[in-house]
Amino acid sequence: MNRVAAVDVGGTTVKAAVYEPVGDGLKRVAELRRPTARGADPGSAVADQAAAMITELGATAGPIAKAGVVVPGIVHNGLAKFSANLGFRDVPMADLLAERLDLPVAFGHDVTAGGVAEHRLGAARGFGDIAFVPVGTGIAASLLLAGRPYRADGRAGELGHVDIGHDDACGCGATGCLEAVASASAIARRFTERSGIPVDGAREVLARQGDPDADAVIAEAVDALAAALRLLATLLAPEVVVFGGGLFEAPGLLERIDDKTQLTFQRKPQLRRAELGDEAGCLGAGLLALGATR
Amino acid sequence: MNRVAAVDVGGTTVKAAVYEPVGDGLKRVAELRRPTARGADPGSAVADQAAAMITELGATAGPIAKAGVVVPGIVHNGLAKFSANLGFRDVPMADLLAERLDLPVAFGHDVTAGGVAEHRLGAARGFGDIAFVPVGTGIAASLLLAGRPYRADGRAGELGHVDIGHDDACGCGATGCLEAVASASAIARRFTERSGIPVDGAREVLARQGDPDADAVIAEAVDALAAALRLLATLLAPEVVVFGGGLFEAPGLLERIDDKTQLTFQRKPQLRRAELGDEAGCLGAGLLALGATR
User: Residues of A numbered 31-50 whose beta carbons fall under 8 angstroms of chain B's beta carbons: which are they?
Assistant: First the structure.
Protein backbone atom coordinates (compact mmCIF):
# COMPACT_ATOMS: atom_id res chain seq x y z
CA MET A 1 0.00 0.00 0.00
CA ASN A 2 1.64 3.18 -1.16
CA ARG A 3 -1.24 5.64 -1.12
CA VAL A 4 -0.55 9.06 0.31
CA ALA A 5 -2.81 11.67 1.85
CA ALA A 6 -2.27 15.29 0.86
CA VAL A 7 -3.59 18.42 2.56
CA ASP A 8 -3.37 21.98 1.20
CA VAL A 9 -4.41 24.52 3.83
CA GLY A 10 -5.66 27.75 2.27
CA GLY A 11 -6.94 31.00 3.73
CA THR A 12 -10.56 29.99 3.23
CA THR A 13 -10.60 26.30 2.20
CA VAL A 14 -8.65 23.19 3.11
CA LYS A 15 -8.26 20.75 0.22
CA ALA A 16 -7.35 17.16 0.97
CA ALA A 17 -6.91 14.15 -1.28
CA VAL A 18 -5.63 10.61 -1.40
CA TYR A 19 -3.27 9.86 -4.27
CA GLU A 20 -1.89 6.64 -5.63
CA PRO A 21 1.46 6.79 -7.41
CA VAL A 22 1.01 5.59 -11.00
CA GLY A 23 4.09 5.70 -13.19
CA ASP A 24 5.53 9.19 -12.79
CA GLY A 25 2.16 10.64 -11.82
CA LEU A 26 -0.35 10.69 -9.02
CA LYS A 27 -3.87 9.31 -9.43
CA ARG A 28 -6.44 10.92 -7.16
CA VAL A 29 -8.59 8.27 -5.51
CA ALA A 30 -10.46 10.43 -2.97
CA GLU A 31 -10.88 14.05 -2.02
CA LEU A 32 -12.39 16.28 0.64
CA ARG A 33 -12.82 20.05 1.06
CA ARG A 34 -13.67 21.96 4.24
CA PRO A 35 -13.74 25.62 5.28
CA THR A 36 -10.46 26.38 7.07
CA ALA A 37 -10.77 25.93 10.85
CA ARG A 38 -10.10 28.99 13.00
CA GLY A 39 -9.47 29.15 16.72
CA ALA A 40 -7.84 31.05 19.55
CA ASP A 41 -4.78 28.88 18.86
CA PRO A 42 -4.65 28.96 15.04
CA GLY A 43 -1.83 26.42 14.78
CA SER A 44 -3.61 23.76 16.83
CA ALA A 45 -6.92 24.44 15.06
CA VAL A 46 -5.31 23.80 11.65
CA ALA A 47 -3.31 20.78 12.86
CA ASP A 48 -6.47 19.26 14.41
CA GLN A 49 -8.39 19.80 11.20
CA ALA A 50 -5.67 18.42 8.91
CA ALA A 51 -5.27 15.33 11.09
CA ALA A 52 -9.05 14.79 11.19
CA MET A 53 -9.33 15.08 7.41
CA ILE A 54 -6.48 12.60 6.88
CA THR A 55 -8.11 10.17 9.31
CA GLU A 56 -11.47 10.59 7.59
CA LEU A 57 -9.91 9.96 4.16
CA GLY A 58 -8.17 6.86 5.54
CA ALA A 59 -11.51 5.55 6.81
CA THR A 60 -13.18 5.94 3.40
CA ALA A 61 -10.34 5.39 0.89
CA GLY A 62 -8.49 2.63 2.72
CA PRO A 63 -5.00 2.43 4.21
CA ILE A 64 -2.67 5.41 3.75
CA ALA A 65 1.11 5.03 4.05
CA LYS A 66 2.22 8.65 4.48
CA ALA A 67 0.86 12.16 4.48
CA GLY A 68 1.94 15.63 3.34
CA VAL A 69 0.56 18.94 4.58
CA VAL A 70 1.30 22.37 3.09
CA VAL A 71 0.41 25.84 4.37
CA PRO A 72 0.90 29.42 3.10
CA GLY A 73 3.22 32.07 4.52
CA ILE A 74 6.78 31.66 5.71
CA VAL A 75 7.61 28.02 6.30
CA HIS A 76 11.00 26.77 7.40
CA ASN A 77 12.39 23.78 9.28
CA GLY A 78 9.03 22.37 10.30
CA LEU A 79 7.76 25.74 11.52
CA ALA A 80 4.90 27.79 10.12
CA LYS A 81 6.82 30.93 10.98
CA PHE A 82 4.32 33.48 9.76
CA SER A 83 1.00 33.75 7.98
CA ALA A 84 -1.00 36.96 8.26
CA ASN A 85 -3.98 35.20 6.75
CA LEU A 86 -4.08 32.24 9.13
CA GLY A 87 -2.61 33.98 12.17
CA PHE A 88 0.46 31.72 12.37
CA ARG A 89 3.51 32.87 14.31
CA ASP A 90 6.24 30.29 14.89
CA VAL A 91 3.81 27.38 14.95
CA PRO A 92 5.72 24.05 15.26
CA MET A 93 3.41 22.53 12.68
CA ALA A 94 5.54 19.46 11.87
CA ASP A 95 5.50 18.48 15.55
CA LEU A 96 1.80 19.26 15.99
CA LEU A 97 0.99 17.01 13.03
CA ALA A 98 3.31 14.21 14.18
CA GLU A 99 1.62 14.22 17.61
CA ARG A 100 -1.79 13.82 16.03
CA LEU A 101 -1.10 11.15 13.42
CA ASP A 102 0.19 7.59 13.45
CA LEU A 103 1.86 7.81 10.05
CA PRO A 104 4.87 9.71 8.68
CA VAL A 105 3.85 13.31 7.87
CA ALA A 106 5.89 15.71 5.73
CA PHE A 107 5.23 19.41 6.16
CA GLY A 108 5.94 22.19 3.68
CA HIS A 109 5.02 25.40 1.90
CA ASP A 110 2.02 25.65 -0.42
CA VAL A 111 3.48 27.72 -3.29
CA THR A 112 6.74 25.73 -3.23
CA ALA A 113 4.74 22.51 -3.37
CA GLY A 114 2.64 23.88 -6.23
CA GLY A 115 5.79 24.73 -8.16
CA VAL A 116 7.21 21.28 -7.61
CA ALA A 117 3.92 19.78 -8.83
CA GLU A 118 3.94 21.92 -11.99
CA HIS A 119 7.56 20.80 -12.51
CA ARG A 120 6.91 17.09 -12.05
CA LEU A 121 3.40 16.78 -13.40
CA GLY A 122 2.41 20.01 -15.14
CA ALA A 123 3.44 22.90 -17.36
CA ALA A 124 7.14 22.93 -16.37
CA ARG A 125 7.88 19.26 -17.05
CA GLY A 126 11.33 18.80 -18.52
CA PHE A 127 12.72 22.21 -17.55
CA GLY A 128 15.46 22.87 -15.00
CA ASP A 129 15.25 26.59 -14.20
CA ILE A 130 11.67 27.51 -13.44
CA ALA A 131 9.56 30.26 -11.89
CA PHE A 132 6.00 29.32 -10.94
CA VAL A 133 4.00 32.49 -10.38
CA PRO A 134 0.49 32.08 -8.97
CA VAL A 135 -1.46 35.32 -9.21
CA GLY A 136 -4.31 35.55 -6.71
CA THR A 137 -4.91 37.73 -3.66
CA GLY A 138 -1.16 38.31 -3.76
CA ILE A 139 1.68 37.29 -6.08
CA ALA A 140 4.52 35.01 -5.04
CA ALA A 141 6.99 32.99 -7.05
CA SER A 142 8.11 29.48 -6.41
CA LEU A 143 11.66 29.30 -7.78
CA LEU A 144 13.02 25.97 -8.93
CA LEU A 145 16.64 26.51 -9.83
CA ALA A 146 18.72 23.76 -11.37
CA GLY A 147 15.72 21.52 -10.68
CA ARG A 148 15.27 22.16 -6.98
CA PRO A 149 13.23 24.55 -4.92
CA TYR A 150 15.23 27.59 -3.84
CA ARG A 151 13.77 28.63 -0.49
CA ALA A 152 16.23 30.85 1.45
CA ASP A 153 14.65 29.72 4.73
CA GLY A 154 11.22 30.42 3.32
CA ARG A 155 12.04 34.02 2.40
CA ALA A 156 12.70 33.70 -1.35
CA GLY A 157 10.44 34.47 -4.26
CA GLU A 158 8.49 37.51 -3.05
CA LEU A 159 7.93 38.64 -6.62
CA GLY A 160 4.75 40.51 -5.60
CA HIS A 161 6.91 43.02 -3.77
CA VAL A 162 9.50 43.91 -6.38
CA ASP A 163 9.36 47.62 -7.21
CA ILE A 164 8.13 48.09 -10.74
CA GLY A 165 8.02 51.86 -10.49
CA HIS A 166 4.46 53.02 -9.85
CA ASP A 167 3.29 55.25 -7.00
CA ASP A 168 0.55 53.12 -5.44
CA ALA A 169 0.96 51.96 -1.86
CA CYS A 170 1.15 48.25 -1.10
CA GLY A 171 -0.08 46.49 2.03
CA CYS A 172 3.56 45.71 2.87
CA GLY A 173 4.27 49.40 3.53
CA ALA A 174 6.24 50.14 0.36
CA THR A 175 5.13 51.76 -2.91
CA GLY A 176 5.65 50.39 -6.39
CA CYS A 177 5.04 46.71 -5.58
CA LEU A 178 3.95 44.43 -8.42
CA GLU A 179 1.02 42.98 -6.51
CA ALA A 180 -0.46 46.40 -5.73
CA VAL A 181 -1.46 46.69 -9.41
CA ALA A 182 -1.30 43.18 -10.86
CA SER A 183 -2.75 40.72 -8.34
CA ALA A 184 -6.24 39.49 -9.04
CA SER A 185 -7.50 41.41 -6.00
CA ALA A 186 -5.75 44.59 -7.12
CA ILE A 187 -7.23 44.38 -10.62
CA ALA A 188 -10.76 44.02 -9.21
CA ARG A 189 -10.27 46.74 -6.59
CA ARG A 190 -8.68 49.22 -9.02
CA PHE A 191 -11.44 48.70 -11.56
CA THR A 192 -14.10 49.41 -8.94
CA GLU A 193 -12.20 52.48 -7.73
CA ARG A 194 -12.12 53.90 -11.27
CA SER A 195 -15.58 52.90 -12.45
CA GLY A 196 -17.67 52.73 -9.28
CA ILE A 197 -18.87 49.32 -10.50
CA PRO A 198 -18.49 46.45 -8.01
CA VAL A 199 -17.12 43.22 -9.49
CA ASP A 200 -16.66 39.70 -8.22
CA GLY A 201 -12.98 39.30 -9.05
CA ALA A 202 -10.46 40.05 -11.79
CA ARG A 203 -11.97 37.67 -14.32
CA GLU A 204 -15.04 39.86 -14.45
CA VAL A 205 -12.80 42.84 -15.25
CA LEU A 206 -11.09 40.87 -18.02
CA ALA A 207 -14.49 39.96 -19.44
CA ARG A 208 -15.28 43.69 -19.87
CA GLN A 209 -12.88 44.18 -22.76
CA GLY A 210 -13.62 47.48 -24.52
CA ASP A 211 -14.71 49.23 -21.33
CA PRO A 212 -12.12 52.02 -20.94
CA ASP A 213 -11.76 51.55 -17.18
CA ALA A 214 -11.32 47.79 -17.52
CA ASP A 215 -8.86 48.24 -20.39
CA ALA A 216 -6.78 50.79 -18.46
CA VAL A 217 -6.56 48.66 -15.32
CA ILE A 218 -5.65 45.55 -17.29
CA ALA A 219 -3.06 47.39 -19.39
CA GLU A 220 -1.36 48.55 -16.18
CA ALA A 221 -1.38 45.02 -14.79
CA VAL A 222 0.08 43.67 -18.05
CA ASP A 223 2.85 46.30 -18.02
CA ALA A 224 3.65 45.49 -14.39
CA LEU A 225 3.78 41.74 -15.03
CA ALA A 226 6.01 42.35 -18.08
CA ALA A 227 8.39 44.43 -15.93
CA ALA A 228 8.52 41.67 -13.32
CA LEU A 229 9.18 39.11 -16.03
CA ARG A 230 12.08 41.20 -17.35
CA LEU A 231 13.49 41.23 -13.86
CA LEU A 232 13.27 37.45 -13.56
CA ALA A 233 14.90 37.03 -16.98
CA THR A 234 17.73 39.43 -16.06
CA LEU A 235 18.53 38.04 -12.65
CA LEU A 236 17.61 34.35 -12.91
CA ALA A 237 17.17 33.60 -16.62
CA PRO A 238 14.52 30.90 -16.07
CA GLU A 239 13.79 28.68 -19.07
CA VAL A 240 10.10 28.84 -18.35
CA VAL A 241 7.74 30.99 -16.29
CA VAL A 242 4.46 29.29 -15.40
CA PHE A 243 1.62 31.65 -14.45
CA GLY A 244 -1.18 30.32 -12.28
CA GLY A 245 -4.54 31.70 -11.22
CA GLY A 246 -7.97 32.03 -12.80
CA LEU A 247 -6.89 35.31 -14.38
CA PHE A 248 -4.85 33.47 -17.00
CA GLU A 249 -7.87 31.66 -18.36
CA ALA A 250 -8.60 34.94 -20.18
CA PRO A 251 -7.50 34.39 -23.78
CA GLY A 252 -4.46 36.32 -24.96
CA LEU A 253 -3.27 37.55 -21.57
CA LEU A 254 0.04 35.63 -21.64
CA GLU A 255 0.67 36.82 -25.20
CA ARG A 256 0.08 40.45 -24.14
CA ILE A 257 2.57 40.09 -21.28
CA ASP A 258 5.05 38.47 -23.65
CA ASP A 259 4.71 41.33 -26.16
CA LYS A 260 5.34 43.93 -23.46
CA THR A 261 8.45 42.27 -22.03
CA GLN A 262 11.38 44.29 -23.32
CA LEU A 263 14.49 42.16 -23.32
CA THR A 264 17.75 43.16 -24.90
CA PHE A 265 20.38 40.43 -24.37
CA GLN A 266 18.49 38.36 -21.80
CA ARG A 267 17.39 34.79 -22.40
CA LYS A 268 13.71 34.89 -23.28
CA PRO A 269 11.72 32.60 -21.01
CA GLN A 270 8.87 30.53 -22.36
CA LEU A 271 5.57 31.63 -20.84
CA ARG A 272 3.06 28.97 -19.92
CA ARG A 273 -0.24 28.72 -18.18
CA ALA A 274 -0.27 26.44 -15.14
CA GLU A 275 -1.79 23.02 -15.93
CA LEU A 276 -2.78 21.78 -12.51
CA GLY A 277 -5.13 24.60 -11.53
CA ASP A 278 -6.05 24.83 -7.87
CA GLU A 279 -4.97 21.22 -7.32
CA ALA A 280 -1.26 22.13 -7.68
CA GLY A 281 -0.72 22.66 -3.95
CA CYS A 282 -2.47 19.43 -3.04
CA LEU A 283 -0.54 17.43 -5.66
CA GLY A 284 2.66 19.05 -4.33
CA ALA A 285 1.69 17.94 -0.82
CA GLY A 286 1.27 14.44 -2.25
CA LEU A 287 4.76 14.56 -3.80
CA LEU A 288 6.08 15.87 -0.48
CA ALA A 289 4.48 12.91 1.28
CA LEU A 290 6.26 10.58 -1.13
CA GLY A 291 9.53 12.13 -0.06
CA ALA A 292 9.96 13.60 -3.50
CA THR A 293 10.72 17.03 -2.09
CA ARG A 294 12.00 18.61 1.07
CA MET B 1 52.58 17.30 -5.78
CA ASN B 2 49.21 19.00 -5.58
CA ARG B 3 50.03 22.49 -6.77
CA VAL B 4 47.58 24.06 -9.21
CA ALA B 5 47.98 26.77 -11.81
CA ALA B 6 45.22 29.39 -12.07
CA VAL B 7 44.60 31.85 -14.89
CA ASP B 8 42.10 34.75 -14.82
CA VAL B 9 41.72 36.29 -18.27
CA GLY B 10 40.56 39.93 -18.06
CA GLY B 11 39.79 42.53 -20.69
CA THR B 12 43.21 44.17 -20.31
CA THR B 13 45.32 41.89 -18.09
CA VAL B 14 45.77 38.15 -17.64
CA LYS B 15 46.59 37.16 -14.06
CA ALA B 16 48.12 33.77 -13.42
CA ALA B 17 49.31 32.11 -10.23
CA VAL B 18 50.45 28.84 -8.75
CA TYR B 19 48.68 27.85 -5.53
CA GLU B 20 49.38 25.16 -3.01
CA PRO B 21 46.41 23.86 -1.01
CA VAL B 22 47.07 24.48 2.69
CA GLY B 23 44.29 23.43 5.06
CA ASP B 24 41.10 24.95 3.67
CA GLY B 25 43.01 27.69 1.89
CA LEU B 26 45.30 28.30 -1.06
CA LYS B 27 48.83 29.58 -0.63
CA ARG B 28 50.19 31.52 -3.59
CA VAL B 29 53.69 30.34 -4.48
CA ALA B 30 54.16 32.16 -7.79
CA GLU B 31 52.42 34.70 -9.98
CA LEU B 32 52.57 36.29 -13.39
CA ARG B 33 50.72 39.13 -15.15
CA ARG B 34 50.59 39.92 -18.85
CA PRO B 35 48.58 42.25 -21.10
CA THR B 36 45.76 40.20 -22.64
CA ALA B 37 46.74 38.76 -26.03
CA ARG B 38 44.65 39.81 -29.01
CA GLY B 39 44.50 38.28 -32.44
CA ALA B 40 42.41 37.67 -35.53
CA ASP B 41 41.24 34.50 -33.80
CA PRO B 42 40.63 35.79 -30.26
CA GLY B 43 39.88 32.35 -28.80
CA SER B 44 43.16 30.81 -30.01
CA ALA B 45 45.13 33.90 -28.98
CA VAL B 46 43.83 33.64 -25.40
CA ALA B 47 44.22 29.85 -25.26
CA ASP B 48 47.82 30.14 -26.54
CA GLN B 49 48.60 32.79 -23.97
CA ALA B 50 47.01 30.94 -21.04
CA ALA B 51 48.85 27.73 -21.96
CA ALA B 52 52.16 29.59 -22.32
CA MET B 53 51.73 31.27 -18.93
CA ILE B 54 50.91 27.94 -17.23
CA THR B 55 53.97 26.36 -18.87
CA GLU B 56 56.14 29.28 -17.80
CA LEU B 57 54.88 29.05 -14.21
CA GLY B 58 55.57 25.31 -14.21
CA ALA B 59 59.12 25.95 -15.33
CA THR B 60 59.79 28.42 -12.50
CA ALA B 61 57.56 27.16 -9.65
CA GLY B 62 58.00 23.44 -10.18
CA PRO B 63 55.56 20.65 -11.08
CA ILE B 64 51.88 21.54 -11.42
CA ALA B 65 49.15 18.88 -11.11
CA LYS B 66 46.17 20.66 -12.62
CA ALA B 67 45.11 24.01 -14.00
CA GLY B 68 42.03 26.24 -13.99
CA VAL B 69 41.27 29.03 -16.45
CA VAL B 70 38.42 31.56 -16.15
CA VAL B 71 37.18 34.15 -18.65
CA PRO B 72 34.48 36.86 -18.64
CA GLY B 73 31.23 36.87 -20.59
CA ILE B 74 28.80 34.03 -21.13
CA VAL B 75 30.42 30.70 -20.34
CA HIS B 76 28.65 27.37 -20.52
CA ASN B 77 29.58 23.74 -21.08
CA GLY B 78 33.20 24.40 -21.95
CA LEU B 79 32.34 27.18 -24.38
CA ALA B 80 33.18 30.87 -24.13
CA LYS B 81 29.87 31.67 -25.79
CA PHE B 82 30.15 35.43 -25.82
CA SER B 83 32.40 38.23 -24.66
CA ALA B 84 32.06 41.67 -26.26
CA ASN B 85 35.30 42.71 -24.62
CA LEU B 86 37.45 39.82 -25.81
CA GLY B 87 35.61 39.15 -29.06
CA PHE B 88 34.58 35.59 -28.13
CA ARG B 89 31.73 33.92 -29.95
CA ASP B 90 31.20 30.21 -29.27
CA VAL B 91 34.88 29.57 -28.63
CA PRO B 92 35.42 25.91 -27.55
CA MET B 93 37.85 27.10 -24.90
CA ALA B 94 37.91 23.90 -22.82
CA ASP B 95 39.00 21.95 -25.92
CA LEU B 96 41.50 24.60 -27.05
CA LEU B 97 43.13 24.48 -23.60
CA ALA B 98 43.13 20.68 -23.44
CA GLU B 99 44.90 20.52 -26.84
CA ARG B 100 47.62 22.85 -25.62
CA LEU B 101 48.37 21.41 -22.19
CA ASP B 102 49.50 18.06 -20.84
CA LEU B 103 47.63 18.37 -17.56
CA PRO B 104 43.95 18.39 -16.58
CA VAL B 105 42.46 21.87 -17.19
CA ALA B 106 39.17 23.08 -15.79
CA PHE B 107 37.49 25.99 -17.54
CA GLY B 108 34.95 28.42 -16.08
CA HIS B 109 33.51 31.90 -15.64
CA ASP B 110 35.43 34.68 -13.91
CA VAL B 111 32.70 36.26 -11.80
CA THR B 112 31.32 32.85 -10.77
CA ALA B 113 34.83 31.79 -9.77
CA GLY B 114 35.30 35.02 -7.83
CA GLY B 115 32.07 34.39 -5.95
CA VAL B 116 33.11 30.84 -5.11
CA ALA B 117 36.46 32.17 -3.85
CA GLU B 118 34.76 34.80 -1.63
CA HIS B 119 32.52 31.98 -0.34
CA ARG B 120 35.33 29.55 0.44
CA LEU B 121 38.11 31.90 1.37
CA GLY B 122 36.75 35.41 1.75
CA ALA B 123 33.91 37.62 2.96
CA ALA B 124 31.10 35.08 2.48
CA ARG B 125 32.66 32.23 4.46
CA GLY B 126 30.04 30.31 6.42
CA PHE B 127 27.00 31.61 4.49
CA GLY B 128 24.75 29.56 2.21
CA ASP B 129 22.77 32.11 0.17
CA ILE B 130 25.14 34.67 -1.28
CA ALA B 131 25.33 37.38 -3.92
CA PHE B 132 28.82 38.52 -4.89
CA VAL B 133 28.56 41.83 -6.75
CA PRO B 134 31.75 43.15 -8.35
CA VAL B 135 31.30 46.74 -9.47
CA GLY B 136 33.70 47.74 -12.22
CA THR B 137 33.22 48.65 -15.88
CA GLY B 138 29.90 46.85 -15.53
CA ILE B 139 28.00 45.21 -12.69
CA ALA B 140 27.27 41.48 -12.53
CA ALA B 141 26.29 39.24 -9.68
CA SER B 142 27.60 35.80 -8.93
CA LEU B 143 24.75 34.01 -7.18
CA LEU B 144 25.54 31.18 -4.80
CA LEU B 145 22.26 29.70 -3.71
CA ALA B 146 22.08 26.99 -1.08
CA GLY B 147 25.87 26.94 -1.31
CA ARG B 148 26.30 26.40 -5.04
CA PRO B 149 26.72 28.65 -8.02
CA TYR B 150 23.44 29.28 -9.82
CA ARG B 151 24.33 29.77 -13.48
CA ALA B 152 21.32 29.21 -15.77
CA ASP B 153 23.65 28.21 -18.61
CA GLY B 154 25.77 31.28 -17.94
CA ARG B 155 22.83 33.69 -18.22
CA ALA B 156 22.05 34.34 -14.54
CA GLY B 157 23.01 37.27 -12.36
CA GLU B 158 22.87 40.21 -14.77
CA LEU B 159 22.20 42.59 -11.89
CA GLY B 160 23.69 45.49 -13.85
CA HIS B 161 20.70 45.38 -16.17
CA VAL B 162 17.81 45.36 -13.71
CA ASP B 163 15.59 48.40 -14.24
CA ILE B 164 15.86 50.71 -11.27
CA GLY B 165 13.70 53.39 -12.78
CA HIS B 166 15.89 56.16 -14.24
CA ASP B 167 15.81 57.48 -17.80
CA ASP B 168 19.45 57.08 -18.84
CA ALA B 169 20.25 54.76 -21.72
CA CYS B 170 22.42 51.71 -21.16
CA GLY B 171 24.83 50.09 -23.60
CA CYS B 172 22.53 47.06 -23.68
CA GLY B 173 19.83 49.06 -25.47
CA ALA B 174 17.44 49.51 -22.53
CA THR B 175 16.94 52.46 -20.18
CA GLY B 176 16.95 52.36 -16.39
CA CYS B 177 19.74 49.79 -15.97
CA LEU B 178 21.62 49.78 -12.68
CA GLU B 179 25.05 49.83 -14.31
CA ALA B 180 24.25 52.92 -16.39
CA VAL B 181 24.42 55.01 -13.18
CA ALA B 182 26.24 52.87 -10.62
CA SER B 183 29.15 51.11 -12.29
CA ALA B 184 32.59 52.57 -11.62
CA SER B 185 32.78 53.65 -15.27
CA ALA B 186 29.35 55.30 -15.12
CA ILE B 187 30.24 57.23 -11.96
CA ALA B 188 33.41 58.60 -13.56
CA ARG B 189 31.69 59.38 -16.88
CA ARG B 190 28.66 61.04 -15.28
CA PHE B 191 30.86 63.21 -13.06
CA THR B 192 32.84 64.41 -16.07
CA GLU B 193 29.61 65.07 -18.02
CA ARG B 194 28.28 67.27 -15.19
CA SER B 195 31.50 69.02 -14.19
CA GLY B 196 33.62 69.06 -17.31
CA ILE B 197 36.48 67.75 -15.16
CA PRO B 198 38.20 64.61 -16.44
CA VAL B 199 38.90 61.96 -13.79
CA ASP B 200 40.79 58.71 -13.72
CA GLY B 201 38.01 56.49 -12.36
CA ALA B 202 35.25 56.45 -9.77
CA ARG B 203 37.58 56.52 -6.77
CA GLU B 204 38.65 59.98 -7.76
CA VAL B 205 35.01 61.06 -7.78
CA LEU B 206 34.52 59.55 -4.32
CA ALA B 207 37.58 61.44 -3.10
CA ARG B 208 35.92 64.75 -4.07
CA GLN B 209 33.37 64.65 -1.26
CA GLY B 210 31.76 68.06 -0.81
CA ASP B 211 31.95 68.91 -4.53
CA PRO B 212 28.27 69.24 -5.53
CA ASP B 213 28.71 67.37 -8.84
CA ALA B 214 30.58 64.52 -7.19
CA ASP B 215 28.03 64.36 -4.37
CA ALA B 216 25.09 64.27 -6.79
CA VAL B 217 26.55 61.53 -8.96
CA ILE B 218 27.48 59.41 -5.94
CA ALA B 219 24.07 59.90 -4.31
CA GLU B 220 22.42 58.62 -7.49
CA ALA B 221 24.72 55.60 -7.58
CA VAL B 222 23.99 54.86 -3.92
CA ASP B 223 20.23 55.08 -4.50
CA ALA B 224 20.51 52.78 -7.51
CA LEU B 225 22.59 50.20 -5.62
CA ALA B 226 20.10 50.36 -2.73
CA ALA B 227 17.22 49.70 -5.15
CA ALA B 228 19.09 46.72 -6.62
CA LEU B 229 19.79 45.41 -3.15
CA ARG B 230 16.09 45.61 -2.29
CA LEU B 231 15.35 43.57 -5.40
CA LEU B 232 17.85 40.90 -4.40
CA ALA B 233 16.41 40.79 -0.88
CA THR B 234 12.85 40.50 -2.20
CA LEU B 235 13.47 37.84 -4.80
CA LEU B 236 16.39 35.82 -3.42
CA ALA B 237 16.75 36.82 0.25
CA PRO B 238 20.53 36.28 0.35
CA GLU B 239 22.07 36.16 3.81
CA VAL B 240 24.99 38.24 2.65
CA VAL B 241 25.80 40.51 -0.28
CA VAL B 242 29.51 40.95 -0.92
CA PHE B 243 30.44 44.04 -2.94
CA GLY B 244 33.71 44.04 -4.85
CA GLY B 245 35.67 46.67 -6.71
CA GLY B 246 37.99 49.52 -5.75
CA LEU B 247 34.96 51.78 -5.28
CA PHE B 248 34.16 50.13 -1.96
CA GLU B 249 37.46 51.10 -0.45
CA ALA B 250 35.83 54.52 0.03
CA PRO B 251 34.88 54.71 3.71
CA GLY B 252 31.17 54.66 4.51
CA LEU B 253 29.90 53.67 1.07
CA LEU B 254 28.43 50.32 2.18
CA GLU B 255 26.79 52.02 5.16
CA ARG B 256 25.20 54.63 2.88
CA ILE B 257 23.79 51.90 0.62
CA ASP B 258 22.52 50.04 3.68
CA ASP B 259 20.77 53.16 5.00
CA LYS B 260 19.02 53.75 1.68
CA THR B 261 17.74 50.18 1.28
CA GLN B 262 14.06 50.31 2.15
CA LEU B 263 12.90 46.90 3.24
CA THR B 264 9.53 46.19 4.78
CA PHE B 265 9.15 42.46 5.53
CA GLN B 266 12.23 41.22 3.61
CA ARG B 267 15.17 39.51 5.25
CA LYS B 268 17.90 42.12 5.60
CA PRO B 269 21.12 40.89 4.02
CA GLN B 270 24.45 41.58 5.65
CA LEU B 271 26.56 43.84 3.47
CA ARG B 272 30.26 43.12 3.24
CA ARG B 273 33.23 44.34 1.31
CA ALA B 274 34.99 41.65 -0.73
CA GLU B 275 38.14 40.38 0.99
CA LEU B 276 40.09 38.92 -1.91
CA GLY B 277 40.35 42.04 -4.05
CA ASP B 278 41.39 41.51 -7.65
CA GLU B 279 42.77 38.07 -6.81
CA ALA B 280 39.25 36.62 -6.34
CA GLY B 281 38.96 35.38 -9.93
CA CYS B 282 42.42 33.80 -9.88
CA LEU B 283 41.76 32.11 -6.53
CA GLY B 284 38.45 30.89 -7.94
CA ALA B 285 40.30 29.46 -10.95
CA GLY B 286 42.58 27.69 -8.47
CA LEU B 287 39.56 26.20 -6.65
CA LEU B 288 38.13 25.21 -10.02
CA ALA B 289 41.40 23.45 -10.83
CA LEU B 290 41.13 21.50 -7.59
CA GLY B 291 37.73 20.27 -8.71
CA ALA B 292 36.12 22.22 -5.94
CA THR B 293 33.61 23.80 -8.33
CA ARG B 294 32.00 23.11 -11.62
Answer: none
